[in-house]
Amino acid sequence: MARIFAATGLAALTATLTMGTAFAQTEITWWHAMGGELGTKLEEIVAGYNASQDEYTVTPVYKGTYTETMTGAIAAFRANEQPHIVQVFEVGTGTMMAAEGAIYPVYELMADTGQDFDPEGFLPAVVGYYTDTNGNMLSMPFNSSTPILYYNKDVFEKAGLDPETAPKTWGELESFANTIMESGAAECGFSSGWISWVQLENFSAWHNQPIGTLENGFGGLETEMTVNGPVQVKHWENMKRWQDEGLFQYGGPGGGADSAPKFYAQECAMYMNSSASRAGVLANASDFEVGFGMLPYYDDVEGAPQNSIIGGATLWVLQGHADEEYAGVADFFSYLSSPEVQADWHQFSGYLPITQAAYDLGQEQGYYAANPGSDVAIKQITLNAPTANSKGLRFGNYVQIRSIIDEEFEQLLAGSKDAQGALDALVERGNALIRDFEAANK
Amino acid sequence: MQTKRVVFSNRGLPYALLAPQLAITFVFFLWPAGQAIWQSFLREDAFGLKTSFVGVENYLRLLREPDYLNSLSVTGVFAVSTTVLSMGLALLLAAAADRMIRSRDAYTTLLVWPYAVAPAVAGVLWWFMFNPTIGIMSYLLEQLGYDWNHRLSGTDAMIMVVIVAAWKQISYNFLFFLAGLQSIPHSLSEAAAIDGAGPVKRFFTVVLPLLSPTTFFLMVVNIVYAMFDTFGIIHATTEGGPSQATNILVYKVFEDGFIGLNLGSSAAQSVILMVIVIGLTVIQFRFVERRVAY
Amino acid sequence: MVENRPWLTFFSHAILILGVLAVAFPVYLAFIASTHPQNAFISGLVPLLPGDRMIENYGTMLDAGISTSGAPPLGVMMWNSLVMALSIAIGKIIISILSAFAIVYFRFPFRLLAFWAIFITLMLPVEVRILPTFKVVADLGLLNSYAGLSIPLIASATATFLFRQFFITVPDELTEAARVDGAGPMKFFRDILLPLSRTNIAALFVILFIYGWNQYLWPLLITTDESYYTIVMGIKRMVQVADSQPNWNFVMATVTLAMLPPVLVVILMQRLFVKGLVETEK
């Protein structure tokens, strides 16, 4: 922590020394995908940085969804119009890593610009996803989250359930949901955002099942997906059955835009989504109390619960800008990872703290004690030491594979395929895209 | 090609007059089209750092790819349904308006303005109405006992985008049908009436055949519209889903190119689309030439 | 009509009124939604009667926007749309009328080639050549500029054809008389052809203005700087926000404002609009 303080102190000192010179401020552009409440907070953080020094000005630009932000940046790179910093979601990691001439790895950036930077200070569960095989950090974690369970305490109470107890296993979840629906407290048991991320990727890691060969793709481009195992098949079978019984309601592909409104409107009693939805959930759930829990697991699966994996996004630095601008980027990154900024962002948004220092600071401030449930995510992600199955995943063309997951899930729910058929098709189509990526990046 | 009997003679002037249009045409149409053709023979990574020539591989893969074949048939269903729905309703409205004498202009004004609504905006309007939680249409359908779910049911999603596309195109078809109906001499209809044919029979035996040039013209225009001008509708609503059920060709070009970053495949799809547009344009142009004597 | 059938007239009115209502209903709902506070959309059904937040909602959107959804103030976006629509409409009319003049009133080598080069643009909608055109515009440094927004959409075969057809119907006697008077081609163009084309130009202007205003994919791709966003593309940004809910009241205020100018143009200039539409498509 002291080191990071020193870094900010040094930056402040440089800023004071250069103050009064006639040079214009160096402009740094940051493309991000944070809309709504998160976007407001992000702008506040940037404004804080811009006010803290006057050498650099960071301009945040909202570029739409994660997909739009990433592909927009790549298209801009091809056109030589790239921003300095782009926020890329975790599934774009494979694509970004392979683009060696286009990205400026964060560990190199920090070394080149002489920033005092300590990769050891970051939480391993978070940075592990974004380091190369030599342990070098390639991008700057900013907003990492993991899916958790939100539930409506009022509905639980109305249905005669204990409002302080979240379901621990899928079995409990099913019986809770049935109680709720039978009592008429709500029309549906649960909904879920990000089917691909929550009900397949995290589901697999949480039950210690491999997502792909070669350590889920960390070991090389020759990896193949393996999510059509019996545990996943059983879960998707249940999802289909629950949908037919009205217990589960689908909220759409990608982030599942229709799932949150179902929870807010008290149609569905439970809701699984990113821990970072916390800010939005609390803002929208004005008429009821929200409870938090870990993801459910099947207690008959050996090794479950293991640990969940992260999602969210990191900041990648793109090549092709002037040195003094990179100095600004590095300075800004130091500011972003300072415990105060991190703790503030984490506590506001529900994203995981990315450094141990930020987590410690939160504890010192008594934040977790005062806000029960706010540490569910970090407990869940650090529940056990990660195995090869629960470190994360790294596949090329994964943005498209995510759409395939949604498509196959939709076919399952629409009844045109059974769980085994959908998952087999998913693996086959996914592997074809991974082979394409391998061919294009040899 | 026909010109004036009387022309001006000047060596440089015509080139100077043509220069701006030709320059723009070359830089922004012909050159990019050439690039698309070249790109369709390449395989490239997303950032454009590694490129290799793969011949017609991209085309062969497309023809084998179930998603592409699906997109072809989805486009067909979408274009035909949109055309039939929009033209049918427009013809009905035009036939009704044609009977009106005093109120015809007022109805026309009230019916033509959706032409001015952007496809993307039209998409958002209907997306809001079909929203599963707060949308009025999904609520009404639920009351009627129909479990509307465009998130899961490809049919529902297709119905929705067809409604949006047809809604926006009704005004256009209405205007052309109305103009067509008004150009039919009343004497023909009257003759049929004297023979004892009722209004419905007259419409089908006399009016409709006389409208066939307009109908044919509108058919081509509507198909072109549904195939190319509806990008905004799809992008603002279903984004091609669920399970590719509304992934029309134009949207797929964009999706594979800009989202999937598979530039070779996207370029190959562009080239195929160009061939389709050229075909449709030729049909349209030949027809126009026949109708309007140059 | 031949005979008077009251039930048929009644039936026709019924159909037309139903048609008008069906066509207007989505827009009515959008307007209603734009007059409510944000929390009206969280639970249950969308409201059907106007709320009391109209002035606040429109006020917020017009002068502040929602920067977190990538929406600069609507005033800025509407201005950009206006600039883009006007540049496209005026630019298209100028270059088309000039090239139609050249093609009709001159004989010169490569005339046929030039004609076909223009004709082929009819076959290449923006959507099918989107990536390479994007690259060209980027190479020319036109991303985030009004030039980049409008110039690539200016070349148009339809407008050229319209003027060509019209010029062909202009009597040759006029040309002869001008030549006898010793007028050069540009003088003839300025003093005779241009005044004669006035209605055609106006009609075309209406159609092209709508075309320009409603552009969606192109501005979406080539603008990365919020100060060049157009209103039609801005809507999409507001509907899709990551990990959060769209603010429907603000979205619908934007939708209403995005529709207003082109719809007004159509209604106020209906005669010209109909003429433009029917003629350009011939």
Q: Mind explaining what this structure looks like?
A:
The complex is a heterotrimer of chains A (442), B (294) and C (282). Chain A is an alpha/beta fold and 442 residues long. Chain A has 20 helices and ten strands. In chain A, helix 2 (36-52) links the parallel strand 1 (26-32) and strand 2. In chain A, helix 2 packs antiparallel against helix 15 (339-349), helix 9 (195-206) crosses helix 11 (230-244) and helix 15 (339-349) crosses helix 16 (356-364). The two termini of chain A are 41 Å apart. Chain B has 294 residues and is mostly helical. Chain B has a single domain (62-291), classed as MetI-like (MetI-like fold). Chain B contains twelve helices and two strands; from the N terminus they run H-E-E-H-H-H-H-H-H-H-H-H-H-H. In chain B, strands 1-2 form a two-stranded antiparallel sheet. Chain C has 14 helices and no strands. The longest helix of chain C has 32 residues, at 74-105. The model of chain C has no long low-confidence stretch (mean pLDDT 83). Chains in contact: A-B, A-C, B-C.
Question: Summarize this, please?
Answer:
With 442 residues, chain A is an alpha/beta fold. Helices cover 48% and strands 13% of the residues of chain A. Chain A contains 20 helices and 10 strands.
CATH topology of the largest domain in chain A: the name is: D-Maltodextrin-Binding Protein, domain 2
Shape-level CATH architecture of the domain at 75-247 and 259-280 in chain C:
Orthogonal Bundle
CATH class of the domain at 75-247 and 259-280 in chain C: Mainly Alpha
Gyration radius over CA of chain C: 24 Å
Task: Give the terminus-to-terminus CA distance of chain A.
Answer: 41 Å
Spatial sequence of strands, sheet with the most strands of chain A: 2-1-3-10-4
Largest sheet of chain C: none
CATH topology of the domain at 75-247 and 259-280 in chain C: MetI-like fold
* CATH uppermost class of the largest domain in chain A: Alpha Beta
Q: Approximately how much beta-strand content do the residues of chain C carry?
A: under 5%
Q: Indicate the radius of gyration of chain A in whole angstroms.
A: 22 Å
Order of helices and strands of chain C: HHHHHHHHHHHHHH
Extract low-pLDDT stretches of chain A: 1-22
List the helices and strands and how they pair.
The complex is a heterotrimer of chains A (442), B (294) and C (282).
Chain A: H1 2-18, E1 26-32, H2 36-52, E2 56-62, H3 66-78, E3 85-89, H4 93-98, H5 106-112, H6 124-127, E4 140-145, E5 147-152, H7 153-158, H8 170-183, E6 188-192, H9 195-206, H10 213-216, H11 230-244, E7 248-250, H12 259-264, E8 268-274, H13 278-284, E9 290-293, E10 311-317, H14 323-336, H15 339-349, H16 356-364, H17 367-370, H18 376-381, H19 398-414, H20 419-440
Parallel strand pairs in A: 1-2, 1-3, 6-7, 6-8
Antiparallel strand pairs in A: 3-10, 4-10, 5-8, 5-9
Chain B: H1 13-39, E1 42-44, E2 51-53, H2 57-64, H3 66-99, H4 104-112, H5 119-129, H6 136-143, H7 154-182, H8 186-194, H9 199-228, H10 231-236, H11 249-259, H12 263-291
Antiparallel strand pairs in B: 1-2
Helix pairs in contact in B: 1-12, 2-12, 3-7, 3-9, 5-7, 7-9, 8-9, 9-12, 11-12
Chain C: H1 6-33, H2 54-63, H3 74-105, H4 111-120, H5 130-139, H6 146-150, H7 157-169, H8 172-180, H9 185-196, H10 198-213, H11 217-222, H12 231-239, H13 248-268, H14 270-280
